Amino acid sequence: MPAILLSRREVETAVKTLQPLPRAVTRLLELTDSETATIEQMERVINAEPVLCGKILQVANSAYYGLARQVNSIRSALILLGAHTVRGIALSVAAVAALRTGRAACETEYPLWRHAFLCAGYAQGIAQASRWGVRTAEDAYIAGLLHDIGSLFLLTRFPAQYRPLLEQAEREPEQFLERELHTFGCDHADVGAMIADHWRLPERIVQAIASHHAPFLPDDESQRLVAAVMLADVWGQESFSPPPQELATQVRLSEETALQIRQRVEEHLETISQILFS
Hints:
- The protein is mostly helical and 278 residues long.
- It has helices at residues 8-16, 23-32, 39-47, 50-60, 74-81, 83-100, 109-129, 134-146, 149-157, 159-171, 176-184, 188-198, 203-210, 223-235, 247-250, 255-267, 269-277.
């Protein structure tokens, strides 16, 4: 029996039922986008959420960041890693928790999360190597992490409709986006942008998620974020559409640099995954 087709409105309604980000995370997003915020303000916000605080310290002390000394407090994490990096870690923790809602992840979810963690690291590394600035590099981490969150949402909320699409994508990836549109009235990039907007993430990140399968790079402030995520998606070997030609002129990395970024992220992938899923 064929799966029942859904409308875009039904998907939008389902997104609105997704739990909001914790107040500490949304406040941290506000503070890191403010020019007048202080480390003391950020420290108080995070310390008010013990579980979030513990996860941030675990990630900060992981081999992924390779700090020379132990991070024993949120203040130390903010000083040593920077506020934007801590913001990215906090959002990673919150995003995983929001979609899992206390349940164990199903087997089909793991490859999607693995790809998300890979692309987060890749996109961040691409932005850093391109010298686009600290904020852009950390925004790239978030956009990379969340670029396929629409797929994770559709899989967990509409498994009967979405799981067959994922299985078909392994055989015919070039038709995946078209099948999503036919089944849901929107594709996973659209749904990811809905979720990012529902979570009140900055517009540049919403646009980066929405545009990561576009045939061209946007001509606005999200251009570099989209470029980083598109290339990360290609490196992750799960891009369902050919990248735009101008991507090669926007991101110019040597083969050696690209290899170093990929090796570093892949080396620590399991560590980060275990911390965020524990």
